Amino acid sequence: MEHLEFSFDHGSMAPANDFAHAGVVGSGNLEVLLERAELSGRCEAVVDTAIRGYERTWHKVLSDFVTRQGLADVRISINDGGATPAVVCLRLDQAAADLKGAPA
User: Fold this and answer.
1) Is the pTM of this model over 0.85?
2) 56 CB contacts (<8 Å, ≥6 apart)?
3) 2-100 in CATH: which number?
4) Domains in the chain: boundaries
5) Distance, CA of 2 to CA of 25 (rounded, Å)
6) Lowest mean pLDDT across 10-14, 22-26, 52-56, 79-83
7) Which site in 32, 45, 86, 97 is 20 to 30 Å from 57, CA atoms measured?
């Protein structure tokens, strides 16, 4: 198990909802929890993954996500079961849509 922590300063959009959840922990999948938090405009991410050695990939995927979504004051928690970057992006975008209050 590997535990990773990241911090990003890209965002400016505070979330409409308090939290959002997407996905399940399982082989090739992951669970994403986004929570509103007072972080002085930053986004913080914690990743717990069964796959070691992909810190740079996680940083790139999460940095791209925060930049694309423009989120600020959000805590990102990920429990990974070996998801590919495409699945990670899908789950993050699903959770972000819920956090922003997008219609289902």
Assistant:
1) yes
2) none
3) 3.30.230
4) 2-100
5) 15
6) 10-14
7) 97
